[in-house]
Amino acid sequence: MDDFTASSKTAAATAAVILTAGFAIIIRSTSSDDVAGSIGGACLVMVALTIIICVLVRHWVVNTTTERTILAAATREAQAQRAFYQANQCALENEQGRLNRDMAAERARIAKTLITERAKMRAEFNEERAQIQADAFRTGVEMERAGMLKPGTEHTRGNLIPFPGQQPAHAAERERSREHGNAGT
């Protein structure tokens, strides 16, 4: 009876008084053979029982302590899940920020390395180009000193490999000398 409201307790007490009165009337009417009194007492008992049943049904329908306990537990669980989710979300954002910083640092390092390597390659290229230019100039000077660049001088031709249809007549004799039967000729 602890979780009944004050109005429910009052209604139950009134029903108990009516029930007691109804039984008292029934007992008194039965001993004196008064049928109308017995029926009236029975009606009072039925009204009292109906009131008690209504109080119990109302308590059963309105009582939400179990549901409130379940709701409180579910609310605590939901809050714990929310806190866990928020903590994971913060951790994920922190990790993403760290990865972004690491990637920015790596990009900067790669860009710096690329600039350094390009400068090194440019210096090597310029050095190689200067060497080629110096060699070409030296070759030109040597050709000038040898008189190869003067007009009217005949140039010595090098040995070129001719195409098969462009061979001179003495080339056929040289080919025969290389056959198996003419060793050394």
Can you walk through the features of this model?
The protein has helices at residues 6-31, 35-62, 65-146, 169-177. The chain is mostly helical and 185 residues long. Helix 1 packs antiparallel against helix 2 (35-62).
Number of helices: 4
Q: N-to-C terminal Cα separation, in Å?
A: 138 Å
> What is the structural class?
mainly alpha
**Radius of gyration computed on alpha carbons:** 60 Å
**Mean pLDDT across all residues, rounded?**
84
Following the backbone from N to C, one meets helices and strands in this order, namely HHHH
In summary, what is this structure?
The protein is mainly alpha-helical and 185 residues long.
Topology:
Layout: H1 6-31, H2 35-62, H3 65-146, H4 169-177
What key phrases describe this protein's structure?
185 residues; rod-shaped
